[in-house]
Amino acid sequence: MEIAEIEKTVRKILSEELNNDSATLSSDDGHHGIFSDVDDAIAAAKKAQEIYVDQPFSVRNQVIQAIKDGFRPYLKKIATDIKEETGMGTVEAKVAKLKNALYNTPGPEILQPEAETGDGGLVMYEYSPFGVIGAVGPSTNPAETVIANSIMMLAGGNTLYFGAHPGAKNITRWTIEKLNDFVAEATGLHNLVVGIEEPTIESVQHMMQHPDIAMLSITGGPAVVHQALISGKKAVGAGAGNPPAIVDATANLDLAAHNIVTSAAFDNNILCTAEKEVVVEQSVKDELIAKMQQKGAFLVKDSAQIEHLAEMTIQDNGTPDRKYIGKDATFILDAAHIPYEGDPKVVIFEAPKDHPLVMTEMLMPLLPIVCCPDFTSVLKTAVEVEKGCHHTASIHSENLPHINQAAHRMNTSIFVVNGPTFCGTGVTEDGTNSGASALTIATPTGEGTCTAKTFTRRRRLNSPEGFSLRSWK
User: What are the UniProt keywords, alphabetically (predicted)?
Assistant: First the structure.
C-alpha cells in the first residue's frame, strides 16, 4: 500500500473514531434538540455545553457557518410558515427579517480579547460563556429570534434552551430541529439548541427556576420579563415599546412621509421598534398627511370611525385584540366597515395625545397623528407617549440642535434620524447592512441592542511578570 493510501486510511479511521466519540458524548438520541420534558431538554443542553466549551474556537465558527449555510435555501419557506401559523405580518417582511438575523448577527469575531501591558505586567480580558442560557421568544418573530439568539449565544460558547411562544410552536420546533441537523452534520455536535414539544406558561416558569439555567434572555410582554427579573438569575429583558416618530417644521416631508409609511407598514407593524404614532408640528401637519396619503396611507377623518377603530381593536383590559395584531390595513378597515379605495398599507388619523390608540402599543398598521404647536411641545409630547419605555424613537428634521435635543431627551435604546425605524434593527429597504442585527433589544435591563458580548462573562487575567514589548524591568 502506498504512503498516500495509508495516510488516507488513517485519516478515515481517526475521523470515524472522533465522530463516534462525539456522538457518544453528545448524542441527541433522535431528538434533533426537541424533548418532551423541560428537565430532559436542559440536561441535554448542559451535557452539550460541557463538550462545546472545550472545543477550539474554530469550532464555533464552523457552527455559525453551518447555521448560515443551512438555512439559506429555506428563508421563503420559513417566512411563509410563520405567516400561516401566526396569521401576522407579510411574507416579504419576514424574509427581510430572516436575512437580517442570519447574516447581520455578529458571531465569534466580535469576542476579541483585550490586553494591557506595562510595568505592572500583563492584564488580559476575555469573553467566556455563562453555560446554558434560557430564552423565551415572541410569536411576532419566532424563527428570527431562534436564529439570532442561537448565533449570539453559541458564538459565546453557550448552549441554549428556547421556550417557544405557543402561538408559533410549530415553526419554532422546525427551526430548532433543522438547526441541530445543520450543526450535527458540520461538527458532530448535538443539542446545542433545545426546546420541548408542547411549550406552555408553566414550562417557561419551570425553565426560569431550573438550577442548570445560568442566564435568561426574555423577549416578550411585561409579565414574562418581570418573571425573569425576579428569578434570581442574571436576566436580559427585551420589553415593550411605543415608538414616536417626531416631525418638525424643517423636515424633508417627502422623505419623512416615505420613511414613516414604509416602516409602519413593514410586517404590518408588529416590530416593537416600528413607529406607533407620529408627533408633528402644526405648521407642516397638513402637508405631511397629504404626502403620507401619496405614499400609501389611508386617512380616516370621521371621529366616530376613529372611535370605532379603538373600540374594535382594544380589549376591555386595555391590550390590543390579537384578532387584529399584524393584520393588513385592509383587513382592519373591512372589519370596521370603513370604505376605502386601492390597497392602503397603513391607516392614519388625527388624535389627541391621550387617546388609547396613541398610548397603546398596537402592533398593527394603525398610526395616529398628534399635532403640537411648536417643537418644544412636540418633544414633550413624544416623551409622554413613549411612556418611559426608553425603547425606540425617531426624528425627521434638518435642524441639528433639534436632532441633538431629541436624541438626548428621548433616551431610547434605538434612536433613528431621518430614516425608517426598522433600520435600527439592521434591516434596510435595499437589503444592505444597516449595522448589526438587533432582534433582542434589552431596554428594561439596559443592554440595549444585544450581541454575542451580551451573553458572555468578561474575565480578567493578571500576569505581573510579563508581558511587554515596550520595556523590560
Answer: NAD, Oxidoreductase
